Amino acid sequence: MRPLHPRPRAARSRLLLAAGFVAIAWGLPAAASDADGPANEEAAIRAVDEAFVRKFNEGDAKAIAALHTADAEAVEADGARYRGRDLIERSYADTFAAEKGAKIQLDVASIQFLSPTVAKEEGRTIIAPAKGAPVSRFYTVLYVKQDDRWLMASVREESDPQVPPRERIKELEWMVGEWVDDAPDSQSKVTCRFSDDGNFLLRDLTVRRAGKVILSGTQRVAWDPVTGEFRSWEFDSQGGFGEATWSRDGDRWVVKERGVRPEGATASSTRVLTRLRPDIVKWTLSDRVISGQAVPGEVGSMLTRVPPAPSLGGTPTAAPTTTTATPANERGDR
Fold first, then answer.
1. Hey, which bits of 56-148 come out as E strands?
2. What mean pLDDT is predicted for residues 182-195?
3. Could you give the C-alpha distances from 277 to 181, 248, 322, in angstroms and in order?
4. Residue 118 burial (C-beta neighbours within 10 Å; 0-12, 13-18, 19+)
5. 59-90 pLDDT per residue, tens
6. Domains in the chain, start-ordered, CATH in brackets?
7. Counting CB atoms within 10 angstroms of each CB, which of 37, 133, 210, 284 has the fewest?
8. How many whole angstroms separate alpha carbon 216 and alpha carbon 209?
């Protein structure tokens, strides 16, 4: 019942109810000792947590409703109330229809057993919609055991004043990895990784011509909580620098760039990054202006992901998933 992001009431997301998914049938083996009981039950609840996340991401409203008691009540942070399985199922179905592709993440803070038949779970849910920034809510769920099944009887949410930056930046996790753009007369290579603290993306660009490095640069991408959007700052080896704002439109990212070229000329442009496949990104550059003069036309190319090197044993390295670059001969924005 929680909003994926601010929108009219009819198109709400149900983050709140999504929090209360730990309610599929489970029980203790008759032979379990009293000491083992709580641990076994908590493990079972956490296993169902994972199952609910899958059902939410599949858009299965009926399965989610079945995790509630017949007269279950859910209360959103703004006071909106939903009572009963039928209404819960309809509200989820409306959400999944309006927000196709939304994904949920769960962070359980605590599970407390108040009695043999009542349990309370508290934590945070984070939903990443197909468009826009992730939305986070705190939640409290009361479960009751009915006919040897644990079902949600009460679900309540509270506003989360701030999603941690490391959660926000995961929306751009697809850029992590190594990518190349082979132009007729040059090759651009971009690597992207998370900063050690996980709050930023760090991107490094190298452009070669005839095997010689002719340009390099570095960029840092971050979430700006004041403006509610991603921003980036970059510096190149020739003395140019710039900044940009990033906004999402489905599988496209629109990057509004502005900066100063090495000779002192101001420049701006619009870059559009479109994910055609997990390993291919198309980029286009348009709306170019240098020293107040418009540069006609649009330029662009394709970026191809470099496959990870085969593991020789030990702990395998994570497979890269994407990033973007601009060849030196097309850097008209800086």
1. 68-75, 81-83, 103-115, 118-128, 135-146
2. 91
3. 15, 16, 10
4. middle
5. 999 998 888 899 999 888 778 788 999 998 88
6. 9-163 (3.10.450.50), 167-330 (2.40.128.20)
7. 210
8. 12
